[in-house]
Amino acid sequence: MTTFSPEIQAALAQQAIELPSWAFGNSGTRFKVFATPGTPRDPYEKIADAAQVHRYTALAPTVALHIPWDRVDDYDDLRRHADDHGVALGTINSNTFQDDDYKFGALTHEDAAVRRKAIDHHFECIDIMDATGSRDLKIWLAEGSNYPGQADLRGRQDRLHDSLATIYERLGDDQRLVLEYKFFEPAFYHTDVPDWGTSYAQVAALGDRAVVCLDTGHHAPGTNIEFIVMQLLRLGKLGSFDFNSRFYADDDLIVGAADPFQLFRIIFEVIRGGGLNSPDVAFMLDQCHNIEDKIPGQIRSVLNVQEMTARALLVDRSALEAAQKAGDVLEANRIFMDAFYTDVRPALAEWRVSRGLPADPMRAFAESGYLAQIAADRVGGVQAGWGA
Amino acid sequence: MTTFSPEIQAALAQQAIELPSWAFGNSGTRFKVFATPGTPRDPYEKIADAAQVHRYTALAPTVALHIPWDRVDDYDDLRRHADDHGVALGTINSNTFQDDDYKFGALTHEDAAVRRKAIDHHFECIDIMDATGSRDLKIWLAEGSNYPGQADLRGRQDRLHDSLATIYERLGDDQRLVLEYKFFEPAFYHTDVPDWGTSYAQVAALGDRAVVCLDTGHHAPGTNIEFIVMQLLRLGKLGSFDFNSRFYADDDLIVGAADPFQLFRIIFEVIRGGGLNSPDVAFMLDQCHNIEDKIPGQIRSVLNVQEMTARALLVDRSALEAAQKAGDVLEANRIFMDAFYTDVRPALAEWRVSRGLPADPMRAFAESGYLAQIAADRVGGVQAGWGA
Amino acid sequence: MTTFSPEIQAALAQQAIELPSWAFGNSGTRFKVFATPGTPRDPYEKIADAAQVHRYTALAPTVALHIPWDRVDDYDDLRRHADDHGVALGTINSNTFQDDDYKFGALTHEDAAVRRKAIDHHFECIDIMDATGSRDLKIWLAEGSNYPGQADLRGRQDRLHDSLATIYERLGDDQRLVLEYKFFEPAFYHTDVPDWGTSYAQVAALGDRAVVCLDTGHHAPGTNIEFIVMQLLRLGKLGSFDFNSRFYADDDLIVGAADPFQLFRIIFEVIRGGGLNSPDVAFMLDQCHNIEDKIPGQIRSVLNVQEMTARALLVDRSALEAAQKAGDVLEANRIFMDAFYTDVRPALAEWRVSRGLPADPMRAFAESGYLAQIAADRVGGVQAGWGA
Amino acid sequence: MTTFSPEIQAALAQQAIELPSWAFGNSGTRFKVFATPGTPRDPYEKIADAAQVHRYTALAPTVALHIPWDRVDDYDDLRRHADDHGVALGTINSNTFQDDDYKFGALTHEDAAVRRKAIDHHFECIDIMDATGSRDLKIWLAEGSNYPGQADLRGRQDRLHDSLATIYERLGDDQRLVLEYKFFEPAFYHTDVPDWGTSYAQVAALGDRAVVCLDTGHHAPGTNIEFIVMQLLRLGKLGSFDFNSRFYADDDLIVGAADPFQLFRIIFEVIRGGGLNSPDVAFMLDQCHNIEDKIPGQIRSVLNVQEMTARALLVDRSALEAAQKAGDVLEANRIFMDAFYTDVRPALAEWRVSRGLPADPMRAFAESGYLAQIAADRVGGVQAGWGA
């Protein structure tokens, strides 16, 4: 393959992947967070770093914020700052896991006062959305319990519905509530939204502007994730992706690093279901660059998504359909794998150059000296991490 | 604890667990099916064996049939035969996995003629239900694919809806469609109804008399099954259980054998959610006694469910609620575990005797000589197994 | 990349992958075995089919036999038959899972008479090896238990040692005992050789000519298989591979079909550890073509191994070593992935043609009409399967 | 059952479970560490808290230290402090995961200077052992890599051997090196000692005083842990347990909380293999009381081990052996389960009272007011956690 068809080029040109501000701060495991020279000290520096990813790839026009980690005094100012750097502010992520009051839950808590506090936090997030122009309020509930008997599973589910309904009511007409599910962690016995079924049932009970976020790292071992992608698209409830990859649990590795073929299958189902470059389905990253450089880690990630999108677009769908209808297992698989095994990198490099981008964004960024510069510039202060 | 409260005695007295006719035939793995002397040769003998379980436990008043394995010429006659043995015919299970035409699907097949054949099979099952007086049509779809690209996941899901809707239409007003889900096997890449979310979405699209069957062995590793029990009860869609236990995949071991505490937690959520002895939630076994004697294997199974139900009924729910509200993790867990660790067996033995049952059903059956008798009587013919 | 280096060409020219005779017979799940027209009725026809794979790929010069499935009256005759078809007989696989006496174990059984019978079966296998000129006796122990308490785990391990030692003693000086491990199935509670550690400990206690067989489908979810490959090579005990792939359990799918990147990592560690084209490490397939055509399924499989070997040979190991030493995570990963993402198929096609082979073995076989011919020729008789 | 046999009483009287000092400090997940009033500020306060566990249970006579977390100026003084509180210092645990130099490994690092630093750290630990009178040096290697290609798996294994051999040489004649394995975390692609096989191969290459530590939370999903217990005892290499429990990954929950029957099976194999109250096999806890009170959490844990030991001692081993030899699956399982289901708590309470201990240690501790007192006393300072 030497070049892409016009249709594929058009699809690639539209692709946009939102970056998480927290990917530019320090992260780690419960055992250790390794620091890196040049790590941002505030949301302004995070956005500056995120803008580098977009500059070299044209793939990452927006940056998601996490409240309270990215709280600032003046969101208009932050918005202008982003605009000055060529990016925009995106999804607002709430946080119900770092306040001492939330030890036993937030939106699900037995105590109405704690629930009220957590709902108010989401109201603040909506206020921020109004200021930033963000469409999506993303809620990941880190709520659950560690020991059988500790919690009333059913009561918590009912309270969750009530809390979400209150938050949903507050949203503007053009805003969405996006509910993420996760198999486990930080709770180790039960999690209040552990699977797509629960997230789907909860958002279906809210209304049309409530949708599901699928984080590719948040499933039980062996789960067929592309099946869930297909099903949520079919049900009209796939709101967004949090891309990353994993070998074991929620490892938060670079998307495509652990099982590239799985990423291919996922994106193929997105295309099959009409979700590629659809306004209904937001592509986002949610990763932790614990040991690798963060900005190149993000560049590598958006490139991985782009490369796999190009491969998935190459699938000869009419030939595939014919083989499927004929029950020709090996031929259908061959057609599918042929696209996966095609090396799209030369054509992508050429296409990038045609659009005024570097052929090799990783190298161009490395040669820019940006990492050395921020390491020199950002001395003193407290590096951003997952602490508030 | 020396005796049960009247409330617990009443709950125990109501308990009924349906037996699968196929548990009395031979079963095994893909590597080997070991035969046993005395194995039934036809549905009549299976029912006779199932009746033994009820005779010694008073826990198993009905027997589920599997079509075509249990096809007979005259279902009225089979019904009378069951009645003569003190049991009744229960759920009708369809089979879409053993016909050569179903190699690539049945209700989901690309070919309308194959779908039609599979739908007609379910019509036959409904006709049998009319004859046997069965309420539930249980559908386990062994459909899926083995290789990425082989199948159109989305198209199959849509066709599944259409097929199920056609079958649902045919049901009588007092009949239900029960859709079982399974993580994997016999398909190894994708399964068309792999999780509770898919089963729920499919039955919700059909109507009130379509519900979900939860087989305790059909989940990904680490799945919190009692959470799903809670959620399906909350959503009004838990139709039945297929009880068994597992260490790895769908091992189909005796219920409670692999993780008794999990069974305790499951039954506790059934009680918590109002599902115990509710007409809406059928308790059934679905097991394979590959290496152990089948009738005692079934007796052991229903006793395991009964013993765990007694334990779960012992949970001091008001004390538990107080500890939960107080955020007292260790005390809530202690209250929960106290019931689990209580040895209910002596009280159950006493209660059985008070109802004219043997204190130790396993021993009483062993001493009856029934196994030796059927081994002597059932000579010749073809032992029943999973073949049609 | 347009062509391979002479070193890579030499490595590819040496590659040999043994085929399992049973891959050409029917196989399936416990639910159904689908038959296919043209399926071999005896070992002679299996070898004829296996020879087709070699004819179109030059990758599969030997065929493994399974006793008793491949028992014949005259092994010299079978050997000549293979020779006439351009292949040779390879590993002899024993079977301790299909005799009624082995219901509770064979080499591990409580009863010395059963152990004796199982040992004698292995003596028969060694006699066959002497006749066929086979080097390796491969033992997969399908032994274990289904219920806690059923078996004395420790006693069985000791008896296993004694049985293996007796068998090992009988081997000729140029013969090897290869012990396969498997996580679970057909036993569902404990398996007597469930992991590489147990296989290693057992063969280390026997002697130098006892080694481990690594079946890529026989691990717990999430297991890093290439790590085990590295470790066994390091310990000098990696005797052979059973290649296949899996999404869930021992799915026995075509190697490379489920996670091609995993296969790449495995073969890279083989190369890194000196195991490629080493006489010490046999490459074999162990797969079940339940729903796809068997001969093309085997051709696809050996091509997958070949293609992934070519990719793994392309890794720039000196650059990789430099990046590893420098702690440059992203660069090391880039070098590694660059080889994986390189499309080696055109160069392989060219190289095949240069050696008088078809550029596209799958197509060449399809066009040969062989499948139609055996379907026409092999009428009557009993198709080979897993039954004895 | 009303009372224990003299043999069981003797076994119970000998039981000792080592407590980890870090269980009394704060712990949590990567998302949040919740603090608790009264949490120790230094090793002295940790030991004081640990002594409470022993005071109420007589089960926990020793406390393990973690270096550098428990570094003090004068270990003689710490030893006297422990003695004054009725306990002794136990295992010394090293730490190779919290120094910035160890980002890419410690004992396995590419750079000899970093390996030297990590070895020196272990020499310091041995010096501390000499001062504290500790026998065991426990090494958990948090080393590995996050991305394929990042690390030379084989080279790291060889360097690990060299580093361990150097440390082993330094040990005194009565000291042991105990090597722990862990499936994953904090590394997410490969871990240098991921399984019992690797730990076994490494310690076997060192010598008799190098043994394996089995942490019950460090296995792949579905792993049969009691099988590994059996195997390591059989091979003479089971050095110690780190007890805890898990539903998903290394959850570090209270031992016995997640799957009590698994704990029963593990302890049964310990007894079966001669490891109960053997000097060769140390029982230790390794847990994180993220949300529950720490001292009662530890009391609950040692009681869980004691209760399960009592149950496992009740197994009628001669009857079990007879049923196993007879191939009576259901009877063998019944005998096994009978012990598990026996409620040993009343007999244990009685036995405790006979030894001058409180019948209910949890309640006695709660009523002592100790938690309130330390909350009042320990004001100011920095609470101990996993930071150095």
UniProtKB/TrEMBL annotation, chains A, B, C, D:
Its EC number is 5.3.1.14. InterPro entries: L-rhamnose_isomerase, Rhamnose_iso-rel, Xyl_isomerase-like_sf. The gene is rhaI. This is L-rhamnose isomerase. GO terms for molecular function: L-rhamnose isomerase activity. SUPFAM superfamilies: Xylose isomerase-like (SSF51658). It comes from the Bacteria. The keyword Isomerase applies. Keywords: Isomerase, Manganese, Metal-binding. PANTHER family: L-RHAMNOSE ISOMERASE.
